[in-house]
Amino acid sequence: MLEEIRERLSEESEGLLHELQVVLPRAIEHALGMGDLRENSEYHAALERQRFVYARLEYISRRLSELSDIDLETIPDDRIGFGSRVTLRDLEDDSTEVFTLAFGEHVDGEKAEISMASPIGRALLGRRAGEEVSVTLPMGTVSYEIIEVFTIHEVTETDDG
């Protein structure tokens, strides 16, 4: 899971670096050739995009640094934490959902990943199978029973084997 996140961030970083070093300089050069810069929307848009790309690259750099600081040995193997796959039963309608707790905003909806910073993610952290949690969402409070927990250690073993 950590490697996937690193890969996604690195790929995004490479694309942004290409844009910063190749695409945007061409766009700025083209806009400069159009004359008066005070009312040149292409020039201002290129500069704004350049600022965004710099900020995004800085953010990605910080995220990659944070990821390198994650030590799997410090993640509990007996309760929900980063990378845990959790099966929840909605206590109101008896439906079940399976989520994997992911890092930051890098979640994949197709893989049913949720951010640890989300309301559900925060409510689940540190919990164990058999416990009940209530989560306040914009649509109201939802109560779940934690049916099953596979920590990142077990998920990694299952995915590798």
Structural summary, described in words:
It is a single chain. The protein is α+β, with helices and mostly antiparallel strands and 161 residues long. It has 2 domains: 2-69, Orthogonal Bundle (Helix Hairpins); 75-160, Chitinase A, domain 3, CATH 3.10.50.30. It is built from 4 helices and 5 strands. Helix 1 (2-32) runs antiparallel to helix 2. The longest helix has 31 residues, at 2-32. The radius of gyration is 22 Å and the shape is elongated. The mean pLDDT is 85.
pLDDT averaged residue by residue: 85
Shape, please? elongated
Strand order of the largest sheet: 3-2-1-5-4
Largest sheet: 5 strands, mixed
CATH superfamily of the largest domain: Transcription elongation factor, GreA/GreB, C-terminal domain
Overall number of domains: 2
What is the terminal separation in angstroms? Answer: 15 Å
Alpha-beta classification? alpha+beta
Unreliable residue stretches: none
Name of the CATH architecture of the largest domain: Roll
Question: What proportion strand?
Answer: 15-25%
- Determine the fraction of residues in helical runs and give it as a percent range: 40-55%
* Oligomeric state: single chain
Query: Within the CATH hierarchy, at the fold level, what is the topology of the largest domain?
Result: Chitinase A, domain 3
Number of DSSP strand runs: 5
